[in-house]
Design goal:
Strand order of the largest sheet of chain B: 3-5-1-12-9-10-11
Number of helices of chain C: 5
Order of helices and strands of chain C: EEHEEEHHHH
Radius of gyration of chain B: 27 Å
CATH class of the largest domain in chain B: Alpha Beta
Largest interface: B-C, 55 and 50 residues
Strand content of chain B: 15-25%
Structural class of chain C: alpha+beta
Number of domains of chain C: 2
CATH architecture of the largest domain in chain B: 2-Layer Sandwich
CATH topology of the largest domain in chain C: Ubiquitin-like (UB roll)
Helix content of chain C: 25-40%
Shape of chain B: globular
Strand content of chain C: 5-15%
Oligomer: heterotrimer
CATH architecture of the largest domain in chain C: Roll
Helix content of chain B: 25-40%
Distance between the termini of chain C: 44 Å
Largest sheet of chain C: 5 strands, mixed
Number of domains of chain B: 3
Largest sheet of chain B: 7 strands, mixed
CATH superfamily of the largest domain in chain C: Beta-grasp domain
Shape of chain C: globular
Chains: A alpha+beta (287), B alpha+beta (768), C alpha+beta (154)
Number of helices of chain B: 19
CATH superfamily of the largest domain in chain B: Aldehyde oxidase/xanthine dehydrogenase, molybdopterin binding domain
Chain lengths: 287, 768, 154
């Protein structure tokens, strides 16, 4: 574990170091995943570039138009406790509260969480249904990547060498939008075997019609993703009946591509997608 | 009870202050001048010939002080049960994790680097991973030389290998004529149950520090049994036991996994080679893949009952997987004796087959084979009750052992609160009361006889000059609170406050012989030894006091560190005064005591007649209430009740600690713990992938103490600890059946397994 | 590199490798209460407080702990007198082998110092990064809730 540590005080400084060392440098946010990998010899960077002193990316802002801007260095504990998020997207705060354990939430960051892209992470599904966008910076400049295009493969994202996530922008939600995040895991602090985020918008009629349906799944494919086929079942006049919900859930399960691992088999995971998509929609409808 | 009595009071842990202050010294905390760090190189393949080892590159790294292999250490075989291993693999490796070489270096990183540079050439051999397959003709042999092995001195006298196979031990324990009895039964039930292999998951990874100074070896380690380990090490290194000192450090949990030597041989070998102290600590992945797990079993059980619910006969066959080395022998032998459960069963036969495979070894784990037996017996008891249309509680009460019955070990049962435990848990769980849909309740009866096989304990009790006392015992404190309980016993006997007792344990240079800490034996055996030693010390004190006061001994008594006399009301002389006089020109007070012995081998005449009981059988019952999410298979335990008849309570705080802690460990065994393998390699060697209960999973747990005094025990105590997790798994399975009419016969009852069983049941729609 | 660490109210100047973990540095300094129990930051035996918040010191770079208040188990007792939480752990038998205890106490402290009226659920959450194999947690919950109650009275 012989590597250097630099602690830049500005984004430019950080990007310069990353660029100079290329593959030999890694940015370190909260370090909650990175330091485990370092200790176990799974990575061997020559330089760690600490993002801790970059105050400009540690804030949570809500604009007048009710957009949310989350700095990459915002921790899970901050997300969980944030007044703005609890008011505007409470299910994101709840999901943040389900990440790992308290000490890890205290230091683990949203930027680190999505950049690491571990199977079963809790933040990506809610961020996906919130149509989040990652603002990424490298020496070449700024890139805005919709989160739907951000996750590429297991532990792999669209970030290029020398690029880091600076902010995650969440557009304003339609009025009346309701979100739910359900996590299925052996124990509370485990990674999700299946993570389901649902966001829907009732259309104002007496209850059973919705104008928007968004479904994101985590833990059941190489990347967390939006279940587009399932979402597209929502037509203009759809009544959200039990049959409709079942069809959506079945379709979403078909879009999953889960693996078998120490926790569960692929078959079980697929079944659980069906169960939890259905439950998430039902819960969102009942809110 | 006398208010001044030390017995039955929730005395705080006498070793607690250092633990809450972070100052307790575990093996990893031991620091000696010039100390080196050791690391072990382990085989990456499950079975293969060791062709060549090249250590030259490793030796050259700056900071490396020694690199050793089998050439550098004694070639002798050793082993806790059967002597079937060598310090390093000599001609072949037998599991992924088998030790091949070791390094001592100035720091951990350097040692790790050196390990990575040792080149080993293997010639892979076919391996066998399943115990049933390992019994078939033509299976690869894990230990071809089994015929030349010897048992470890006194531990395994009834070792019965089947030469030319992987069956290291096959034994039968029987009474009556089980075939005849089965033939006469109204109903016969036959089932096969499977268990999981779990890891002890003590929070402290194994640690050992060895130092060699002027021909004397000192080892600090997390040993549950310092004397047996010393014997093994002394024999192994060819050193008289008077020149090896084994000291148990603070032990961060054992649960049976720290009984056998694990790191000590490497630490000593490296210390001998470098002439410097060497510390070795296991990493957590090493713990999961190269320490040991429990001994999993396939259990075939055939029970004969009459239609009125009387148990007539029971036949059980166990196939145990001991992995690459034979430490699975103790649990397989214990299940042989206790396997049929705490019921009146005149005719029974248990066959136990212990099989080598090319995997992580099994070793004793809390319960010593009885969890596996109980899983089968207590599950089947419910299945039988259901078929007979009987209440599972009534069915058990009808057949449970009572005072005067003869148990499966051949003893006449006495001091038994078994039925009381059943009644208590049934009441507390609301047995028979209405419950919500998809909620189920299940029971299990638990019992275990002590694993004495002649185990013995000694104790010394001395008075200090100021009237306080010193207790020396050989058994280790592993977190169960033995130092405290033993201090309480000494204090009570001596008539002094618990605060005035100093206790030193588990140091072979200082303490008297004790078989060690296992099978919940310390409160009973070491406790009786301490009581006897204290009684002797007290007697000597009174003798001296008698000489000083010229009052006859029989008229003197102790009270609050003073000597008083009912006959001579004015007399009041402090212990301090007596001791000062004693030490000035009389004599020291040296109390000694011992307890145990005799053994429980059925073949002995006194055992066949059931006349000499092996005291310390423990009894209990457990009940759970749970709900099942039928769509996900998730079992959520709402409440667990665990009643123990531990005899009279020495310390309610530590006893409840065992009952509750054990129940949670049982919950992990029941619901999600399992060491997973692929081609012999452990695939979940971390707390991320091997899950033990954590704070969110804990249901309401009610511990109940049922106190039926044991006359042979110290102040009536029996002990506890091993019993504590035994019944949770079958109680959970029984509760799942109660809720859903779905019977599952394999562990763990994880969501996927439960869901699959629900789906099968729904398809066939047949209640078993 | 040299870093200045503020530990239990005292400043220490230490020479460390840049990627040194806080757990290892603390233990080198003789503060051996924090323990290594795993390699994946799951067990919590290494828990200390950093600016009053619970942190797994096995995943904290020592160099990044500079300028922050680090509190370890050794910093709780005042003048040899045990802290109330330590006393309550003893009173409720909330420890057996003691290996998880320093980390457990620190995690509990982080909770009650900020929330004097935690629910049982909040206690579970505060301790969800601390594994215990011996006690079954129940006595630990009791000790922590008793500590909170004691603090409410003050």
């Amino acid at each position: 574990m012989d590597c250097e540590l630099t602690e830049p005080h500005s984004m430019d400084e950080a990007l310069n170091v990353l660029s100079r060392y290329g593959r030999d440098a890694m940015p370190i946010a909260g370090g909650q995943s990175l330091l485990v990998m370092l200790r176990n010899g799974l990575i061997s960077p020559k330089v760690l570039v600490s993002l801790e002193n970059l105050a400009e990316i540690r804030g949570i802002e809500a604009t007048q138009e009710r957009k949310l801007c989350l700095g990459a260095m915002v921790t899970c504990s901050m997300l969980k406790a944030s007044r703005e998020i609890r008011e505007m997207a409470p299910f994101l705060a709840q999901a943040a509260g389900k990440v790992a354990s308290t000490p890890i939430r205290n230091l683990g960051t949203i930027g680190g969480n999505i950049s690491h892209n571990e199977l079963g992470a809790d933040l990506p599904p809610p961020l996906l249904v919130l149509d989040g966008e990652a603002e990424c910076r490298g020496l070449k400049g700024l890139r805005k990547i919709p989160l739907r295009e951000f996750f590429r493969d297991y532990f792999s994202t669209s970030l290029q060498e020398g690029e880091i996530v600076c902010r995650i922008q969440l557009p304003s939600l339609p009025a009346g939008a309701r979100g739910v995040y359900l996590k299925h895991s052996t124990r509370a602090e485990d990674l999700a075997m299946v993570g389901v985020a649902v966001l829907l918008v009732p259309d104002g009629s007496e209850g059973k019609r919705i104008s928007d349906l968004r479904i994101a799944l985590g833990g059941v494919a190489p990347v967390p993703f939006r279940a587009k086929k399932a979402e597209s079942l929502l037509g203009n006049k759809t009544v959200v009946s039990q049959e409709f919900i079942k069809e959506v859930a079945d379709t979403a399960a078909g879009e999953a591509d889960p693996i078998t691992d120490a926790d569960a088999s692929a078959d079980y995971r697929r079944k659980m997608v069906r169960v939890f998509v259905r439950r998430a929609i039902q819960q969102a409808m009942e809110k | 009870m006398n208010m001044s009595s030390a017995i039955g009071r929730p005395i705080e842990r006498v070793d607690g202050r250092e633990m809450v202050s972070g100052r307790a010294v575990y093996g990893v905390d031991v620091k000696l001048p010039g100390m080196l760090w050791g690391k072990v190189l382990r085989s990456p393949i499950p079975h293969g010939r060791l062709v060549h080892i090249d250590v030259e590159k490793a030796k050259k790294i700056p900071g490396v002080r020694a690199v050793i292999t089998s050439k550098d250490v004694p070639a002798k075989r050793f082993g806790f049960a059967i002597k079937d291993e060598t310090i390093f693999a000599v001609d072949k490796v037998r599991y992924v994790g088998d030790a091949v070489a070791a390094v001592a270096a100035v720091d951990e990183d350097t040692a790790e680097e050196a390990i990575g540079l040792i080149d080993v050439e293997y010639e892979e051999l076919p391996a066998v991973f399943d115990p049933e397959e390992a019994c078939l003709d033509g299976a690869p042999l894990v230990h071809e030389e089994m015929g030349t092995y010897e048992p470890n001195r006194g531990r395994s006298p009834t070792w019965k290998p089947i030469l030319g196979t992987n069956i290291i031990h096959q034994a039968v324990h029987a009474r009556g004529n089980v075939e005849e009895a089965l033939a006469k039964s109204d109903f016969v039930f036959e089932d096969t149950f499977r268990t999981n292999q779990i890891h002890h998951c003590y929070m402290e990874p194994h640690a050992a520090v060895a130092q060699v100074e002027s021909g004397k070896i000192t080892v600090w380690s997390c040993a549950q049994e310092v004397f047996p380990i010393r014997s093994i090490l002394a024999d192994l290194f060819g050193v008289p036991e008077s020149r090896i000192r084994v000291v148990a450090t603070k032990v961060g949990g054992g649960f049976g996994g720290k009984i056998a030597p694990r790191l000590e041989p490497y630490a000593i070998a490296l210390a001998l080679k470098t002439s410097r102290p060497v510390k070795i600590v296991m990493t957590r992945p090493e713990e999961f893949s190269a320490a040991a797990g429990s001994a999993p079993a396939v259990v075939y059980i055939k029970t004969g009952v009459q239609k009125d619910g009387t148990l007539k006969a029971r036949e059980m066959k166990f196939i145990w997987d001991t992995g690459a080395y034979s430490e699975g022998l103790p649990p397989s032998n214990r299940a042989l004796k206790d396997g049929i459960g705490g019921y009146r069963t005149p005719d029974f036969r248990i066959t136990s087959t212990l099989v080598y495979t090319n995997k992580l070894r099994a070793t004793p784990l809390r319960g010593l084979g009885v969890p596996e037996a109980t899983w089968a017996v207590e599950s089947q008891m419910d299945m039988i009750a259901h078929k007979l249309g009987m209440d599972p509680l009534e069915f058990r009460l009808k057949n449970a052992l009572e005072e005067g019955d003869i148990n499966s070990v051949g003893d006449v049962v006495h001091s038994i609160g078994l039925k009381q435990c059943l009644h208590e848990v049934a009441k507390e769980i609301g047995w028979g009361k209405p419950k919500k849909k998809d909620v189920g309740r299940g029971l299990a009866l638990i019992t275990k006889s002590p694993t004495t096989t002649g185990s013995i304990s000694g104790a010394y009790v001395h008075f200090n000059e100021d009237g306080s006392a010193q207790v020396l015992v050989g058994a280790s404190e592993i977190g169960q609170g033995s130092l405290t309980a033993l201090s309480q016993i000494a204090a009570e006997e001596l008539g002094i406050p618990v605060d005035s007792v100093g206790i030193v344990a588990a140091d072979t240079a200082v303490c008297p012989f004790d078989q060690g800490t296992f099978s919940s034996r310390v409160t009973l055996y070491t406790g009786m030894a301490v009581k006897a030693a204290a009684a002797e010390a007290k007697k000597q004190l009174l003798e001296i006091a008698s000489q000083i006061t010229e009052i006859p001994e029989q008229d003197l008594e102790v009270d609050q560190q003073k000597i008083i006399s009912k006959k001579h009301q004015g007399l009041c002389i402090s212990f301090k005064e007596v001791m000062e006089r004693a030490h000035t020109n009389m004599k020291p007070i040296l109390g000694k005591g011992w307890a145990g012995g005799k053994g429980d081998w059925p073949g002995l005449p006194h055992k066949l007649k059931g006349k000499e009981p092996t005291p310390g059988s423990k009894y209990g019952a457990q009940a759970v209430e749970l709900e099942v999410d039928k769509e996900t298979g998730v079992v959520k335990i709402l409440k667990m009740v665990s009643a123990h008849d531990a005899g009279c309570t020495i310390n309610p705080l530590t006893l409840d600690g065992q009952i509750v802690g054990g129940a949670v460990m049982g919950m992990g065994y029941a619901l999600y713990e399992r060491i997973q393998f692929e081609d012999g390699r452990v695939t979940n060697p971390s707390f991320m992938d091997y899950k033990i209960p954590s704070s969110h999973e804990i249901p309401e747990i009610v511990p109940i103490r049922v106190e039926v005094p044991l006359p042979e025990g110290p102040f009536g105590a029996k002990g506890a600890g091993e019993l504590a997790g035994l019944g949770v798994a079958p109680a959970v399975a029984n509760a799942i059946f109660d809720a859903l009419k779905v019977r599952i016969k394999e562990l763990p009852l994880d969501p996927e397994t439960v869901l699959a069983a629900i789906e099968r049941h729904d398809k066939s729609n047949v209640a078993i | 590199m040299r870093v200045e660490l503020q530990i239990n109210g005292e400043k220490s100047l230490v020479e460390i490798k840049p990627a040194a973990l806080l757990l290892d540095v603390l233990r080198e300094l003789g503060l051996q209460g924090a323990k290594r129990g795993c390699e994946t930051s799951h067990c919590g035996a290494c828990t200390v407080l950093v600016n009053g918040e619970a942190a797994h010191s096995c995943v904290v770079l020592a160099a990044r702990a500079t300028g922050k208040e680090i509190t370890t188990i050794e910093g709780l007792a005042q003048d040899g007198d045990l802290d109330d939480l330590q006393k309550l752990f003893l009173k409720f038998g909330a420890l057996q082998c003691g290996y998880c205890t320093p980390g457990m106490i620190m995690a509990a402290k982080a909770l009650v110092d900020r929330n004097k009226n935690p629910t049982l659920e909040e206690v579970r959450t505060a301790l969800d990064g601390n594994l215990c194999r011996c006690t079954g947690y129940t006595s630990i919950f009791k000790a922590v809730l008793a500590y909170a109650e004691l603090h409410r009275k003050e």
